[in-house]
Amino acid sequence: AEERECEQHQRSKQQQQQFFTAAMSEGQEELNYYMTSVSSNLAIKKQQQRIELALEGKGVKFNVIDISVMEGAKEKMRELIGDPTALPPQLFRGDKYLGNFDAFEAAIEDNNLDAFLNGSA
């Protein structure tokens, strides 16, 4: 019985690796996280910390785009969202807007974070 469980486990690991490889070969856009390292707004700092801890805790790879030091990043973030007053933190899959902190929190509460981060929520 143990040998059969071991074979099933190996088969499952191989299937997961094949799925992962297929997903990567489809050229899925990277997760882009717009944030600011310079802010006097405590709420923004806490929101950013919450997002970073959650993503790192799940082992999610993401690009950090710091709008306070990267020239043109704030303008691009706002252009992609379609809101000239949008503030960080904001999440994108490539250039596809996923949502702000409230949308991220809602996805966690709904146990739907993976779909949210993949742009399919």
What order do the helices and strands come in, and which of them pair?
Blueprint: H1 2-25, E1 31-35, H2 42-57, E2 63-66, H3 73-81, E3 90-93, E4 96-100, H4 101-109, H5 113-117
Parallel strand pairs: 1-2
Antiparallel strand pairs: 1-3, 3-4
What can you see in these coordinates?
Helix content is 52%, strand content 15%. It has helices at residues 2-25, 42-57, 73-81, 101-109, 113-117, and strands at residues 31-35, 63-66, 90-93, 96-100. A four-stranded mixed sheet has the order 2-1-3-4. The termini are far apart. Residues 11-27 have low confidence and may be disordered.
In brief:
The protein is an alpha+beta fold and 121 residues long.
Which structural category fits the helices and strands?
A: alpha+beta
Share in helix? 40-55%
Strand content: 5-15%
- Please provide the ordered H/E string of secondary-structure elements: HEHEHEEHH
Ends apart, CA distance between termini: 40 Å
Largest sheet: 4 strands, mixed
Strand order of the largest sheet: 2-1-3-4
Number of strands: 4
Jot down its keywords.
alpha+beta; 4-stranded mixed beta sheet; 4 strands
